[in-house]
């Protein structure tokens, strides 16, 4: 697909590979759903999982026992492996990675194959399915591409100020390796927040509204509270189920419930509403940073 220059051909090939993937996934899902499935057969579902795990574990053992490569598999999940190549240059990492891919492919029956997708330099592997790093897809690539999976910079449940700060800090860390420079960036952002120099748009959270019937009685969800508040003023302005609702956590009396402090963009624009600085610092901005940087020995909360 990457070798094609014709966009229509590339689009057709992408649709075909997506169709094959969905057929495989749906077939597995149907057989594994033993109560609600349309064609349940637990043995088939279990065998798919077992063979996948067996193939992955065999590949990991093959890599670990080869002393020539001097590498370590630090993470393996479903159909992929993260291999640490300590002390190697990027060129050496690509060479060793290709050797590993060829060896694992030769160890499996056709059409099972392992492909070297990319080299991260550097990389932070946070937890399962959560990692971030500078990605190189080929040895000829000179400038890395920032890539993140599962962390706050690619999720929609955080506020922009936290997302932007996390990505800026990680890029600074990857480029310089200097935590003191990262600390100065964090301190500068917190000073801007305290002094009111952060835009209200960067402090907005966004969640999907599930409709009036989509919440349990007594549930304290900001989208639901905002919808009730809007409905009490104008029933026609209530957001529809599935619509995304935005709000900022404004300042309030000590001990006030946070859900009561949710302010819509219109309410923020109508009057000066200061942000709840303590909430943003301790609950929105610092925790994502700490989850990444604590792996390097830094305690962000002490900054």
TrEMBL record:
Top-level lineage group: Eukaryota
GO molecular function: DNA binding; DNA-directed DNA polymerase activity; nucleotide binding
A cellular component annotation (GO) from this entry: nucleus
Enzyme class: transferase
DNA-directed DNA polymerase family B multifunctional domain location: 1-294
InterPro entries (alphabetical): DNA-dir_DNA_pol_B_CS (IPR017964), DNA-dir_DNA_pol_B_multi_dom (IPR006134), DNA/RNA_pol_sf (IPR043502), DNA_pol_B_thumb (IPR042087), DNA_pol_palm_dom_sf (IPR023211), PolZ_Rev3 (IPR030559)
Residues that span the membrane, as ranges: none
Record keyword Cell cycle present: no
Entry keyword Lipid biosynthesis: no
Keyword entries, A-Z: DNA-directed DNA polymerase, Nucleotidyltransferase, Transferase
EC number(s) on file: 2.7.7.7
Pfam short name (any one): DNA_pol_B
GO-annotated biological processes: double-strand break repair via homologous recombination; error-prone translesion synthesis
Entry-linked PANTHER family: DNA POLYMERASE ZETA CATALYTIC SUBUNIT
Name recorded for this polypeptide: DNA-directed DNA polymerase
Species in which this protein is naturally found: Diatraea saccharalis
Lineage: Eukaryota, Metazoa, Ecdysozoa, Arthropoda, Hexapoda
């Amino acid at each position: 697909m990457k070798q094609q220059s014709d966009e229509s051909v590339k689009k057709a090939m992408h649709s075909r590979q997506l169709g094959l993937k969905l057929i495989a996934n749906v077939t597995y899902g149907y057989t594994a759903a033993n109560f609600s499935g349309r064609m349940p057969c637990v043995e088939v579902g279990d065998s798919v999982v077992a063979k996948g795990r067996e193939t992955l574990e065999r590949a990991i053992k093959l890599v670990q026992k080869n002393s020539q490569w001097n590498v370590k598999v630090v993470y393996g999940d479903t159909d992929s492996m993260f291999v640490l190549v300590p002390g190697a240059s990027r060129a050496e990492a690509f060479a060793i990675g290709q050797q590993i891919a060829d060896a694992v492919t030769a160890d499996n029956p056709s059409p099972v194959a392992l492909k070297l997708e990319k080299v991260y330099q550097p990389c932070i592997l946070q937890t399962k399915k959560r990692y971030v790093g500078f990605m190189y897809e080929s040895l000829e690539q000179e400038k890395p591409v920032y890539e993140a999976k599962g962390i706050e910079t690619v999720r929609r449940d955080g506020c922009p100020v936290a997302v932007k700060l996390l990505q800026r800090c990680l890029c600074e860390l990857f480029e310089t390796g200097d935590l003191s420079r990262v600390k100065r960036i964090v301190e500068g952002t917190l000073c801007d927040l305290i002094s009111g120099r952060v835009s209200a748009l960067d402090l907005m959270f966004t969640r999907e509204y599930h409709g009036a019937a989509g919440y349990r009685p007594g549930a304290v969800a900001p989208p639901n509270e905002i919808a009730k508040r809007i409905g009490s003023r104008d029933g026609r302005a209530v957001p529809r189920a599935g619509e995304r609702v935005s709000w900022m956590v404004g300042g309030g009396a000590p001990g006030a419930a946070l859900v009561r402090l949710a302010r819509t963009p219109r309410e923020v624009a109508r009057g000066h509403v200061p942000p709840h600085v303590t909430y943003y610092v301790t609950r929105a901005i610092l925790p994502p940073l700490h989850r990444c940087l604590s792996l390097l020995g830094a305690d962000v909360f002490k900054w």
